[in-house]
Write a structure and sequence with these properties.
The protein is of the alpha/beta class and about 350 residues long. About 55% of the residues lie in helices and about 10% in strands. About 30% of the residues are buried.
């Protein structure tokens, strides 16, 4: 069977249309830093072997590097075939005989593995330009106009829960905090997995946009550009700050109740450390009071101080929108029900569409 070399666009369309086995043959370290979402690492060389071969290539010759690579590749051929075979023919995940292979530039590493898998009888596709070409594709996604509406609201409004309710009601969503593994505040990393690298966050976001851009509308939560240690890419951020924000206005007491329920059971020491990190912005006296409340297990009093701080912070972010008076549509609510709030948002969108078409 022939080895098919395909463009990044064709690669993404093929691998996202159906469940496919995408094999990243770069070294474990390269893969760990960032990779195509859903890819499996089937490394041709270890990190140490990659360094050694690269050094030979630069300091001696291309031929010396290839010979060294062949010494490393030869003993691993059978294991590599068996690894791919196991992944393809897993009883819970049958995927036929198609294998998608890429390395860094679509050069010797991916073509060597593709040759081996093709020889064994798999249908092999190689990514033209490799992971580097995929990264160029990723960056292009953020400049493409995207139909977005934003769920806004002060801290404690339950915006993430509302996104999930919107999804249950058949709406298309992208959960930026889930992609970033961070809830977007000084306390946002507590109880969450380690954040991805900036590059990996961009990869995941680009793939979500590609898969969902044909929807009539994508709902996102109103975020700062920075979510923990990662940033929403600049070109996409420029789109977001011009979009309408459907601002759910819940009573302070209701939001405080939500925050205490969400964060009150977290590790006290980590909560205190988080307060220390925002001490200057919160104010020395307020930080001291907050920490004392946490130590004394007066969680509600501690979060009341913090909630007022985050309300002020959010008001400042609202003023930085392109046209805040027209962009913010306020929806007052006296209920604490994410499903009802999701329905309010959908109704408000339909009313806006009717006004636009009238």
């Amino acid at each position: 069977m022939p080895i098919n070399v395909i463009s990044p666009e064709e690669w993404m369309n093929k691998t996202t249309a159906v469940q496919s086995l995408v094999t990243d043959v770069r070294s474990p370290g390269e893969f760990q830093h960032a990779h195509i979402p859903g890819a499996v690492n089937v490394p041709l060389f270890s990190d140490e072997e990659r360094v050694r071969i690269g050094t030979l290539y630069k300091q001696t010759s291309r031929e010396a590097a290839i010979k060294e690579g062949l010494d490393c590749f030869g003993p691993t051929m059978r294991k590599m075939v068996e690894r791919v075979e196991t992944l393809l023919y897993h009883p819970d995940n049958p995927q036929g005989k198609e294998v998608y292979v890429h390395c860094w530039r679509g050069g010797m590493r991916s073509m060597a593995v593709a040759w081996l898998l093709d020889l064994y009888g798999f249908q092999v596709y190689v990514l033209q330009g490799g992971y580097k070409a995929f990264r160029n594709w990723v960056l292009q996604q953020f400049a493409i106009p995207t139909p977005v509406c934003i769920v806004g609201g002060y801290t404690g409004s339950g915006k993430t829960r509302i996104l999930q309710s919107l999804k249950q009601l058949g709406q298309c969503i992208i959960d930026l905090e889930d992609l970033a593994h961070h809830k977007g505040s000084a306390f946002g990393n507590i109880g969450m997995p380690a954040q991805p690298s900036q590059e990996m966050f961009e990869n995941k976001l680009a793939l979500e946009l590609h898969q969902k851009r044909n929807s009539q509308l994508i709902w996102l939560e109103d975020e700062s550009q920075r979510i923990g240690d990662v940033n929403i890419p600049h070109e996409f951020w420029q789109q977001l700050i011009q979009k309408k924000v459907y601002f759910l206005n819940l009573p302070f007491e209701m939001r405080l109740e939500n925050i205490v329920r969400e964060y009150g059971g977290l590790d006290r020491e980590r909560l205190v450390h988080a307060v220390v990190r925002i001490r200057k912005r919160l104010g020395g006296l307020q930080a001291q009071h907050t920490i004392q409340h946490l130590i004394e297990d007066n969680v509600s009093e501690a979060f009341e101080i913090l909630l007022r701080y985050y309300d002020t912070f959010y008001q400042k972010s609202m003023s930085r929108k392109i046209n805040p008076e027209q962009q913010f549509i306020t929806l007052d609510s006296g209920v604490n029900d994410s499903n009802e709030h999701a329905k309010m948002l959908i109704t408000s969108i339909h009313k806006d569409e009717e006004r636009f078409l009238a």
